[in-house]
Amino acid sequence: MYRKITLFMLMTLLVIITGCWDSMLVEDVFIVTGLGIDISEDNSNLITVTAFGPSVIEKAEEPYISFSGEGNNIGKALQHIRNKTYREVAISHTMILLFSEEVARKDIRKYLDLFIRNAEIGSQIAVAITKGRAQDYFTTKIRSNPNTAMFISDLIETEERKVNISEYTLRGIVNKLNERYSSLVLPYIELGKNKDEILLNRISFFKKGRIVGTLDKDYILPLLQLRGSLERGSIDIGSANPKKEIREVISLKLFPKSRKIDVNIEDNNVNIKIFTKSEANIFELEPPEKKIDEKEIENIEKRSEEYLKKNMLELIEKLQKEFKVDGLNLSEYVRVKYPDYYERTDWNEVFPEINIDIKTDIKIKGIGLTK
């Protein structure tokens, strides 16, 4: 009986003294929803971290506020912010991580360590590169959503669903950077002309953790189709004769059906052929009275194939000659078919010199949005 009473008392004490011993009041915590990483304007050896979140000031005019701190790493910069706010800085609710292009040109890998090792940080945090300083994006007032971090996160999430690029999250970045020849692709955001809007109109390419260039969204569709991850997309082929007085617009909804990649290596010369097949629907046509017969459909198919191939070749030209990065992940096909060649060569050095041939096939199945 005595042992039972003693056990009951011990269990009661455990309930009383555990669970909330290290808890803090909400007003004692600055809950971060967005983080921006910049190079310090005063010292290029330091970084500036901007933390954005709900205002910690009672009856503040603005519902959200940002604080910046400097340090030689993210942890030190966050400590600087703690000293400014006299509050604990909680980053477990971070929704968006922004790196300025200046930081990205140095190498983002060394700044990711804190987030990769911190169990409180979700692996699905959205990550983006900014034109100009990252901290400027958290002072931008978006009319539709005062929580700028949430707005940017939603913007990227919406785009990710459309373009199907897994690297847009922290987990995707880590997986890519662990590859032997990582070719990271991240969203690239810009401020609008009036500084009251945030635009996602470009994508950025990385090589070994460093940004090597950006491309506008027109190249996303050919990129994804060449990668084999495009689910659907649209192309506008316009008029066959630009000198026509009557404006002509032809827009197609594209449904990729197959992609085939053939790799052939002879005398250390790498030749790769990529074949893509798609079906398409015409969903916009101007002038609307334009006659669409079998001959015209064949004409549109040919023009759309030429248009898509042209964009694909332009993309490949930039990847090979300007960025010098395998954004198409072709190294995997070389590794599978020619493992010995793959092991003894540096693909980063080989990729800019390989021969890539493109063949596209598009068949129009109907007029309208439905598949």
From TrEMBL:
Gene3D superfamilies: Nutrient germinant receptor protein C, domain 3. The keyword Lipoprotein applies. Pfam families: Spore_GerAC (PF05504), Spore_GerAC_N (PF25198). One of its GO terms (cellular component) is membrane. Its main location: membrane. InterPro entries: GerAC_N, Spore_GerAC-like, Spore_GerAC-like_C, Spore_GerAC_C_sf. This is Spore germination B3, GerAC. It comes from Caldisalinibacter kiritimatiensis. The lineage of its organism: Bacteria, Bacillati, Bacillota, Tissierellia, Tissierellales.
